[in-house]
Amino acid sequence: MSVQVQGVVARGKGLPVSLETIVVPDPGPGEARVRVQACGVCHTDLHYREGAINDAFPFLLGHEAAGVVESVGPDVTDLAVGDYVVLNWRAVCGTCRACLRGRPQYCFSTFNATQKMTLLDGTELSPALGIGAFAEMTLVAAGQCTKVDPAAPPEVAGLLGCGVMAGLGAALNTGNVSRGDTVAVIGCGGVGDAAIAGARLAGARTIVAVDIDDRKLEKAKHFGATHTVNSRNVDAVEAIREATGGFGADVVIEAIGRPETYEQAFFARDLAGTVVLVGVPSPDMRIDLPLIEFFGRGGALKSSWYGDCLPSRDFPMLVDLYLQGRLPLQDFVSETIGIGDVEAAFEKMHHGDVLRSVVKFDA
Ligand code: APR
Ligand code: ZN
Ligand code: ZN
Question: Which pLDDT score, from 0 to 100, does residue 363 have?
Fold first, then answer.
């Protein structure tokens, strides 16, 4: 039997989101229906609402979520009713070229639910990142459910579903930060702070946080920044060099997605250093840099999609580190809100007032 629940829907470009009744089908083969307990508000949700991702309105927003499996499709064997899961948007296929050569984190054929959730009048919804979790119940591919230790509260565990994982993974997976490295992180929102926390976890010796907002720099210290730079007042590249013995950082993580800050990242690394771009640029952005600098400096220029994470490997491990008190995931939750407060949360995000607002659903 399909179920009807409340969900946060973006009906058209730039229109405020609305709370709608949505129809969630019974899970078919390979699918699972999940009772969502918490779902964070991410920039990507706002980008969907603004029509910046594509035009497949109406969207069912929300994609940073944790919850409990409510029912599974007939052939699903590795997931059971009652399992506590974090939802992911990288359910790997196991058969594409990337998967077959042992690099499933680059899978280019990831799974989503086959059936569509709809509005009451039958209009099909496009779930954000194939998830759609600003809803009491959602339908996903079984592989999008990653089991983690239920001791972690849903508003905390769910963060691993997107932004916080992107930042942690930018440091741990893509940047491969190692003990003794010097690291700089440009942009200290939720993603940048997660990169800082990841760098600390990996044993970085120096972690330079760069932002234009002093409130953000204070928070960054809490997550592990050893130095802070307000790049409104001082030259970011010079300041990073100064903090790293005049050399530049081994790994510079750009967590904004803008040409001018990418350029800072490029010049703020030491010879043979690594730049990781985890901030998402818009399609119109360009950079213009001397090619000789690319050659002469060596090293690696990388981008980090979803922190190059493999959910089955990374989510349970990071939840365990959190439970052991070694990763302060709880401090990314600025506030918990109701399902009707998503539009207000977009506004706060826009003004830089929060790291993450998280929608909590009644049990
Ligand atoms: N120089 C330094 N810091 C800047 C600049 C700048 N020119 N412009 C903005 N910032 C800072 C902001 O003050 C803020 O603290 O960058 C931070 C961006 O944080 P958020 O807006 O909270 O974004 P976040 O959720 O961290 O995501 C960052 O990663 O996943 C992507 O789409 C996401 O592109 C976005 C990026
Ligand atoms: Zn694959
Ligand atoms: Zn996201």
Answer: 63
Average pLDDT score, the chain: 97
Which residues, judged by CB distance below 6 Å to any ligand atom, belong to the binding site of ligand 1? Answer: 43, 163, 166, 186-192, 210-213, 216, 231, 255-257, 261, 278-280, 352
Residue span(s) of the chain under CATH 3.90.180.10 come to 3-161+328-360
What is the model's pLDDT at position 297? 94
User: pTM of the entire structure?
Assistant: 0.97
Q: Cα-atom radius of gyration of the chain, to the nearest Å?
A: 20
Query: How far is ligand 1, taken at its centre, from the CA of residue 162, in Å?
Result: 15
Distance (Å) of CA 129 to CA 88, 146, 148, 270: 9, 16, 21, 36
pLDDT in tens, 29-65: 999 999 999 999 999 999 999 999 999 999 999 999 9
Locate the ligand 1 atom nearest the alpha carbon of residue 44 and give its number: 32
CATH T-level assignment (fold) for domain 3-161+328-360 = Quinone Oxidoreductase; Chain A, domain 1 (3.90.180)
Nearest to 307 by CA among 128, 106, 156: 106
Closest CA to 58 of 151, 123, 138: 123
Ligand nearest to the CA of 354: 1
191 alpha carbon to ligand 3 midpoint, in Å?
Answer: 10
- Domain span(s) for CATH 3.40.50.720 in the chain: 168-305
Give the pair of three-digit tokens for residue 12: 């058209």
Which class would CATH give 168-305? Answer: alpha beta
